[in-house]
Amino acid sequence: MYALLILDMQIGLVHGPDKPWRSPELLETVNALMDKARSAGAAIFLARHIGPVGSPIEPGSPLTMLAPELRLQGGEVVFEKRRPNAFSLTGLADQLRACGATGVVVAGMKTQYYVDSTCRAARDLGFDAVLIADGHTCSDTPELKAEHIVAHHNATLAGPFCQLVQAQDWTF
Fold first, then answer.
1. Which residues are within 8 A (CB) of 115 and not within 5 positions of it... i.e. 6 or more apart?
2. Is the CB of residue 139 less than 8 Å from the CB of residue 20?
3. Hey, which residues does 80 pair with through a beta bridge?
4. Contact 135, 29 (CB under 8 A)
5. pLDDT at 52
6. C-alpha to C-alpha distances, 11 to 61, 67, 68, 109, nearest whole angstrom
7. Of 28, 32, 84, 168, which is most buried with the most CB atoms under 10 A?
8. Which residue in 21, 7, 17, 27 sits closest to 144, CA to CA?
9. pLDDT, tens digit, for every residue of 64-123?
10. Taking a C-beta distance cutoff of 8 angstroms, is the pair 123, 158 a contact?
């Protein structure tokens, strides 16, 4: 059984100064994935990245709140993380096992940090990982456009670290 893991779809990233590539489409995709997960009775986990006290993303900062476009219904597990890898120091692995999940479907932000490290860690912890190919994004960097970062990570992670699937093709 797979659980849905949505990474860092929070105000500071979705609506921050560095506009994410395909943000409206990503929000639509994540909402559709949550609908599919709910219909199948799959658990839904949403991570919020927080930083140290005094930082713009300190605990309780409005920038760490989930994007209001997400259609939450109250049955989701929302948790805070302080590291790129959503499993690190969060208890996520234990929560997944407790709900019977043997795999995670990963979507969200940011591709080169949180999505990458979480997909890699999932396999190390014994979970099957599925990366939604059109379900993650980031912003342009001085070196690369976001579109190229996403394509690179899809190609790099697929196979050794996760199964790569388009959102429309995934069923829980």
1. 7, 106, 108, 109, 131, 136, 153
2. yes
3. 48
4. yes
5. 95
6. 10, 5, 8, 11
7. 84
8. 21
9. 999 999 999 999 999 999 999 999 999 999 999 999 999 999 999 999 999 999 999 999
10. no
Is residue 95 within 8 A of residue 125, CB to CB? The reply is no
Phi/psi for 92 (5° steps) reads -60, -45
Kindly provide the residue ranges of all beta strands, DSSP E only, lying in 22-114, ordered along the sequence: 44-49, 77-81, 103-109
| Domains of the chain, each with CATH number or no CATH | 2-169 (3.40.50.850)
- Report percent pLDDT > 70 for the chain: 100
Residue 117 CA to residue 35 CA, distance in Å, equals 25
pLDDT confidence tier of residue 154, bands split at 50, 70 and 90: very high
Residue 103 one-letter amino acid: G
What does the pLDDT read at residue 53?
Answer: 96
Q: Average pLDDT for residues 131-146, to the nearest whole number?
A: 97
Q: How far apart are CA 98 and CA 95, in angstroms?
A: 5
